[in-house]
Amino acid sequence: EEGMAKARSLLEGLGLRPSESDCCRTQQVCRAVVSRAAALCAAGLSAILTYMCRSRELECLVVNVAVDGELYQGHLRFREILQSVTALLAPNCKVTFVPTSDGNGRGAAIVTAVALRLVAQRHEVDQVLAPLRLSRDDLKRVQGLMRREMDLGLGRETNPTASVRMLPTYVCNTPDGGEQGKFLALDLGGTNFRVLMVEVGADGIHMASEIYVIPTAVTQGTGEALFNHIVECIMDFQLKQDLAGQVLPLGFTFSFPCQQLGLDKAVLLTWTKGFSASDCVGKDVVQLLREAAQRKQNLGLKVVAVVNDTVGTMMSCGYDDPKCEIGLIVGTGTNACYMEEMHNVGTVEGEQGRMCINMEWGAFGDNGCLDDIFTEFDLVVDKKTINPGKQRFEKLISGMYLGEIVRHILLALVDKQLLFRGKPCPKLQTNDIFPTKFLSTIEIDGLGLRKVQGILEDLELQASFEDSTLVREVCQTVSKRAAQLCAAGLAAVVEKMRQNQGLDQLVVTVGVDGTLYKLHPCFSQHVQQTLKDLAPKCIVTFKQSEDGSGKGAALVAAVACR
Questions:
Q1: 141 is catalytic
Q2: pLDDT tens digits, residue range 501-532?
Q3: Most buried residue, 79, 207, 300, 316, by most Cβ within 10 Å?
Q4: For this structure, is 513 an active site residue?
Q5: What Cα–Cα distance (Å) separates residue 338 from each residue in 342, 490, 496?
Q6: Cβ contact 489:146 at 8 Å
Q7: SS3 readout for 97-131
């Protein structure tokens, strides 16, 4: 009745003499126009809500919608239709409509305040991450320092004090396709130990292998227990493969810094990657293996070569690509090797031919030459390792440490009230709670932030979407720096090879292995782009090794037997 009265009043105000039916029809027209307007508004709003729900990968979006305007505030029917149609069109969204007052003035002030807060927060975040963002000049300097340390490591007089040891491997030839026979291969250098049987023939390479876990108690126990465990694994494999009683040439991939005194003699210099077995440093690891075989009465071991996993990777890829003269590992640890001209190797007699040099570049910077790029987070991680001050380049690059670097950055951001609303995160205080595999998952292109939130929720971290975005940025910064530093080291290697050969342009292949390089969604791309920038006169192809450590060790043995 009130509506009819208002309709009559409005029509009479226009100089009309409306009947009862005129007023009724006018009322119906007004309702139709308002209903359409409210329904169209609801349709547009529902599209926004549905998009928000899907992009955040939510089953149900709970959200407040701030509303202002005379039509919404003053028209009850408009409000009712807007709310009911929105609920109908966006059933997975629980929406609360919140009327606002003085939206223009007060809202503008709030927007300004929020913008200023975000600018201040962005500045603080950039300050935290700035030391990890390396310029091209920084990387060129690292490249130059690596080259200097390489030259020192190759010199007879300077080798003992060089941080990059440049160890001779006594591997002087790469595969040429003429290798044949059956070989055993052992692979020790990380969390798992592998035994392989490799058959090399005219039709290619065929392999059988078994993975054995090395308990922490063994890796950090006595050397005798460690090598006993290795021989027990070999014996188990021989039984399973029907090899008991056969004497096959054996290649031993031993992925720790060694002073190689011959193809089958390598003295352990230091343990890395969490190993600390006693009574091994300073001893020939091949002899330790042979002694363990004698203790276990396994007389079928004929060790013909001991190689580093990096050398094995180069040899493995070299079987398929003759241009492969560099090996690279970026996984639990990191290292590189390459074919050097013998006349440059001052630590070994002889001037003719070439020899593969095991760089042991993980120790690059142990002499302090990289101190200015070490951040406070790197220093904290370094101090908590079992070998503080050692393997410093490796601690900036390899998978064993990147997750810990990220964890300490996140703790700093929480402390500065920039992450997780500054709330204490007890679980984030736990060492190694944020493994490097999280970086690989978080940085996958197209991964919804909801998935990132899920990872953080598993760590009992209640993350907003802004938090998830910042965590992703931290991961990207740390992994990109690692890849760029790796590329700077490689740039020093390829430029040296180019200059050794007196070439205007070097064409070479890098055989590469390691979970970080292979599984991280962006690492390989960053390495290749940075290397191209730092060494523009070198055309470098990267070939991923399918089984570098095992197949490569067997190929070293095969080349030796050839």
A1: no
A2: 999 999 999 999 999 999 999 999 999 999 99
A3: 316
A4: no
A5: 12, 10, 10
A6: yes
A7: EEECCCHHHHHHHHHHHHHHHHHHHHHHHHHHHHH
